[in-house]
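Database export, one record per block. Field names are fixed; values are copied verbatim from the stored entry.
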Amino acid sequence: MKTNITRLALIFAVSTFAPAAFAQEEKKEDKKPAATDEKVVEVPEPGTIAASIRDGATFSILTKALQATGLDETLGTKGAYTVFAPTDEAFLKLPEGALDKLMLPENKEKLRSLLLYHVLPGTFTMAELKDGDIKTANGEKVEIDVKSDTKEVEDSKISKADLVTSNGVVHSIDKVLVPESLDDFAGLDAD
């Protein structure tokens, strides 16, 4: 009988203090940091196309352009993409003032179209690229030209191929590809 009384006393003691303990835990959870007006900067997932481009030594201009259009978020998450990535040197070959004009906020959609012209839905390694036209993410087609020792997209040489990422593959190219829809914009010429 003493054992039953002891058990009851213990249950009573625990039940008396438990609500207070839970109430204190709830109060701790209520102490959330105050919301701020600061914008949360999305970081591409490690190992993605966007992260690989951002971390590449020769893609600082492409990284800024992707960020300006929000495509860094798309290429920084799940998916399957092939990107023909123009190097900084390739961007510097654009007509004088063209890049500055493309980077203006009012030309965001034109820049986005230009960048999407460098993106293929699906993953294509160098060995999988074949002669012919292929539709890009902006809806226009690019021409793949397979030669005996090189492969080109439009007339841009693929200089470094097959950087495999968690969401696709990146091929470095030596010239910015210009879609026909942007022909004559800021001195750009679709070849």
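Remark 1: Confidence is low (pLDDT under 50) at residues 8-41.
Remark 2: The domain at 49-183 is CATH 2.30.180.10 (FAS1 domain).
End of record.
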